[in-house]
């Protein structure tokens, strides 16, 4: 009789754990991704390049990840022809950046239970943060039209940056209906406060230099979750 009681107790506990796990998520994660990026600076023509990122993720809840990101990439633009840049400027920036950002997914703020449409849209997110970008530029410093004129600016600099992020996170669940992996697909537009992104700091009295340097990225990132298991106040995934 004790064996039967023990058996049913184990089955009941396993069933209860299985049901409770629909609310559970893991606190930590690591990730890596690739972007296709392009600069927006005072140089007329800009070129696209790949960039790469590594991330450490803290899940404040399953719909509010807070991340520390290391990013490396390349921005470039300009050329010797007037069509590429009217002053013959061109640059290549092999940059590195460290960024801290958070993404607010709709699931954190809506009741999506028993609604198939909200179940789909709950993983859309908007986010922002702050970081620092270290610029390492190779720059055409002398004008090709007026060789005696030297374009002002610095080849190496550090700027404060603010990313604005939009996207969707595809959560991949394990056998306990807990998110074990995720794939983020998104758009990132970053403002860099300074004149270091292209290495030129041309005076606005002589050149068109009236906009903040910035760049955009189309990004895909893969994440793996681990660590302490925590319960959320809503089902993360409805299951049967």
Automatic annotation (TrEMBL):
<protein>
    <recommendedName>
        <fullName>Outer membrane protein beta-barrel domain-containing protein</fullName>
    </recommendedName>
</protein>
<keyword id="KW-0732">Signal</keyword>
<feature type="signal peptide">
    <location>
        <begin position="1"/>
        <end position="19"/>
    </location>
</feature>
């Amino acid at each position: 009789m004790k064996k039967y009681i023990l058996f049913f107790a184990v089955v009941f506990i396993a069933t209860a754990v299985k049901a409770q796990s629909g609310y559970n998520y893991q606190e930590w994660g690591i990730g890596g991704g690739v972007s296709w990026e392009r600069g927006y600076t005072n140089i007329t023509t800009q070129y696209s390049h790949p960039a790469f990122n590594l991330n450490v993720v803290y899940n404040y809840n399953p719909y509010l990840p807070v991340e520390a990101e290391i990013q490396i990439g390349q921005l470039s633009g300009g050329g010797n022809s007037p069509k590429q840049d009217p002053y013959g400027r061109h640059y290549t920036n092999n940059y590195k950046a460290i960024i801290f950002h958070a993404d607010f997914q709709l699931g954190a703020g809506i009741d999506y239970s028993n609604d198939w449409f909200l179940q789909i849209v709950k993983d859309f997110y908007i986010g922002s943060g702050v970081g620092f970008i270290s610029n390492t530029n190779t720059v055409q410093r002398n004008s090709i039209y007026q060789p005696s004129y030297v374009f002002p600016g610095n080849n190496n600099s550090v700027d404060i940056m603010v990313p604005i992020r939009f996207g969707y996170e595809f959560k991949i669940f394990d056998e306990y209906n807990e998110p074990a992996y995720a794939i983020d697909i998104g758009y990132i537009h970053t403002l860099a406060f300074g004149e270091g992104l292209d290495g030129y700091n041309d005076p606005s009295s002589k050149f068109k230099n009236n906009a903040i340097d910035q760049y955009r990225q189309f990004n895909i990132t893969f994440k793996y979750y681990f660590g302490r298991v925590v319960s959320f106040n809503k089902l993360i995934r409805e299951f049967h």
